[in-house]
Amino acid sequence: MTTIDELRRTVCDLHAELTRNGLVSWTAGNVSARVPGADLFVIKPSGVSYDDLTPESMVVCDLDGTPVDGDLSPSSDTDAHAYVYRNLPEVGGQVHTHSTYATAWAARAEPIPCVLTAMADEFGGEIPVGPFALIGDDSIGRGIVETLKGHRSPAVLMRNHGVFTIGKDARAAVKAAVMCEDVARTVHVTRQLGEPVPIPAEDIDRLYDRYQNVYGQ
Ligand SMILES: [Zn+2]
After folding, report:
1. Which residue from 170, 185, 188, 166 is spatially nearest to 122, judged by alpha carbons?
2. Predicted confidence band at 217 (pLDDT cuts at 50, 70, 90)?
């Protein structure tokens, strides 16, 4: 049984992966986790330096994005996270970053083509682009859900903004954010040298199936 205190620690600790992997600058970026069995989630506080994050500073919100426990204001992306938790019940964790290479694709509104086996494994195809959306209402959350619903990719490049990822838990969403930046960089570098070679759809399917169902311990 995962208690809220354990989740506060998990979400706090996972923020260190964003800095360790070079995905965030200053206070941008955030991780959240759904509280299993409750209509609640835990998210980073707004505008707090990564070095100063503590389990106690994490904010517990209901699925409308209203804080129910915590002394600080939640992340400015809380409404987007709340919308995704309300509309995608299988999602247990989310991450948002402005990581450089992935966001460069988002700035061009260009999906990252599936030209690496690692992309087929993790994303099951291209990494799609979501609509342009302003912060402050449901529009970012709506764009994430509309783009990822029925898509195998756990990552979406929100146009002119950055990366949002989902996962069965917060750790899986962090992994998707790390992998998204990694493949965004590699495909970008490939583009500088020539045209990337696509992977046939049936091979993408085979790679995705093996990685999702067989690979690992
Ligand atoms: Zn952002």
Report:
1. 166
2. confident
> 3-class SS at 1?
coil
Checking 141-148 for CB contacts under 8 A at 24+ apart, the result is 141/79, 141/80, 141/81, 141/82, 141/83, 141/84, 141/87, 142/83, 144/80, 144/83, 144/84, 145/83, 145/84, 145/87, 145/88, 148/88
How remote is the CA of residue 164 from the centroid of ligand 1, in Å? 9
The one catalytic residue in 13, 121, 138, 209 is 121
- Average pLDDT over every residue of 188-214: 96
Q: What is the mean pLDDT of residues 163-167?
A: 98
Tracing tokens 């570098």 back to the chain, one arrives at 189
Distance between CA 177 and CA 4 in Å, rounded?
24
163 CA → ligand 1 middle, Å: 8
Ligand 1 geometric centre to CA of 202 (Å)? 34
Active site residue 215: yes
